[in-house]
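> agent: user asked for a holo structure of the chain below bound to S-adenosylmethionine. Plan: (1) validate sequence alphabet, (2) canonicalize SMILES, (3) run complex prediction with ligand conditioning, (4) return tokens. Step 1... ok. Step 2... ok. Step 3 dispatched.
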Amino acid sequence: MAGKTCWWVDYIIYKLFRRFFQHPRRILRDHVKRGMTVLDVGCGSGFFSLGMAKMVGVKGRVISVDLQTETIESLKKRAARAGLRERIEPRVCSDRTLEIDDLAGQVDFALAFYVVHHAADAPGLMMEVHRALKPEGKFLIVEPGHHASAAECEATETAAQQAGFTVADHPKLTRDWAVMLVKS
Ligand SMILES: C[S@@+](CC[C@H](N)C(=O)[O-])C[C@H]1O[C@@H](n2cnc3c(N)ncnc32)[C@H](O)[C@@H]1O
């Protein structure tokens, strides 16, 4: 019983932490605009996909990709409950490819939040995102400060540059490392 209580306490604290410190609108408001096509790489159950769907509005589009079927099913339910299902295109990918070749040159903004350190092929993932973006399209990578070491973050940035990105900024986020990349 005590363990169950702790699980719920942890869950609520985590949800509050995310809403307060990682609010999608606060982090993304300078980058995600109405009518945009955005890509949420490793979307999980859609914390950022739902936030971005509100930001892009009825004429916008959010493509949400994850390799876990269960998280994509959870995202579909959450999107339907929020009345955002029509703006969100959930996709299951494999651990070797995002399977987004059909998006080449169509995406305005891409996000990989707490994903790159999990990826089996991070350089490949970055090349796929680079192809999907429009010229000058932006890609924000955020890695958890408590998981990704400085050397891993540096390797991520190097792989992004090798994929053809230019580093535009290192946004300041509470406890996390972030890099804003631009397709050049
Ligand atoms: C820590 S969760 C973050 C989820 C979400 N971005 C968020 O901030 O709530 C990492 C997610 O990345 C997904 N993932 C890991 N490697 C991936 C890959 N190569 N392609 C797509 N998704 C991947 C996992 O399945 C998991 O849902």
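> agent: step 4 complete. Summary for user: Strands lie at 37-41, 61-66, 88-92, 107-113, 133-144, 165-169, 176-183. Residues 2-21 form the longest helix (20 residues).
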